[in-house]
Design a protein that fits this description.
The protein has one domain (about 5-90): Pnp Oxidase, Chain A. Residues about 90-95 have low confidence and may be disordered. The longest helix has 8 residues, at about 25-30. The protein has 1 helix and 5 strands, in the order ββαβββ. It is mainly beta and about 100 residues long.
Length: about 100
């Protein structure tokens, strides 16, 4: 399921309007070992997708700031991901 996220240089933060009711939130409470996939299209013509899959440990945090401050229903609850390893395909301008 697509979600919004922020990256502060150390952690990824996943959030949303109804985070506390989401399956993602409930899954993190049961098992904090997670994976996240970020994909993008560099160009449509020619078709040039980019993808990054990362594994890590997640926790629930309260955080002000980030993209949720710019939407109609900001929610300070976020899933914070601490990355342990990643696999990169086509992303060259992202450092972890």
């Amino acid at each position: 399921m697509p979600v919004g996220f922020d990256f502060n240089g150390n952690y990824f933060y996943v959030g949303g309007m109804n985070l506390l009711k989401s399956t993602k939130y409930k899954n993190v409470l049961r098992n904090n070992m997670v994976a996240i996939v970020i994909d993008d299209l560099k160009t449509i013509d020619p078709w040039d997708p980019r993808v990054m899959k990362m594994y890590g440990i997640a926790g629930i945090v309260t955080r002000q700031g980030g993209y949720t401050d710019r939407i109609d229903h900001p929610n300070p609850g976020h899933i914070e991901l601490v990355l342990k390893r990643n696999g990169v395909g086509g992303l060259t301008n992202m450092s972890l």
